[in-house]
Amino acid sequence: MTTMSDSSAWVDVRYRVQPSADAWILPEVPVPESREHNQSSRHLVALLEAWVARTGLDAIVGQNLALRWAEWNPRMGIDPDVALIVPAPPKDEPLPSLCTWKPGHAVPRLAIEVVSKHHPYKDYRDLHERYGASGVGELWVLDPEGHGPKSLGGPVPIQQWVRRDRTFERVHFGAGPIYSEAISAWLWADPIRITDDADGKRVWMTVTEAERAAKEEALAAKEAERAAKEAALADLDAAHARLAQLERELAKPRDR
After folding, report:
1. pTM of the model
2. Cα(195)–Cα(254) distance, rounded to whole angstroms?
3. Cα(145)–Cα(41) distance, rounded to whole angstroms?
4. Are 201 and 213 in contact (CB under 8 A)?
5. How far is 61 from 81, CA to CA, in rounded Å?
6. Higher confidence at residue 229 or residue 103?
7. Cα separations in angstroms, 183 against 4, 144, 186, 189, 246
């Protein structure tokens, strides 16, 4: 009996995408997000911003920043939950949208979508076509709450799409970890985290987490120093006590 987990049950399907001007028009109002959805997006933004700061990369991290790539129809586009844009757009101009036909507006190296309970079919079935047309280098579709419809193979924690020349290919559909060429790091799904190593030991931290860890490390070092001093004083007291005892023994009259 063949199951969906057997490799023989899967086929690679490749097809050309014709941009749909009507279906791909950005909504005029923000799409509502759950608290959990927003927390996941903000955490990823914070992790990537801290990485950009550590590496000194000329980049920005956008959240819900409209991505538009068709100058002939600028209303067409998509709003990534998170986008890593390298190099950063010009800093001396406002950035209501990322318009990739404008000078200095680079296509995102990485886009991230967190599956919404309000639109799970869109996140599993439609998003990749728009991202493929936009020129995005890599796409993660994360489903930490398991909203993906069973009819589309869901829910799965991670989908990863990667650009290969003019092909936008789904290279992962399942649990993590996965390696991301966009950030040269590993993505884990439960919970969502990023690490420098495949073993998951060198975990990325946000600026706030790094500051907290540094404070805790400093406090631990002070506590270790205090404990060492107390131990040294205790050893010194014990040595004094032994010396006093020895002096008393020497002061006793000796039997003749």
Report:
1. 0.80
2. 73
3. 13
4. no
5. 10
6. 103
7. 31, 20, 8, 16, 68
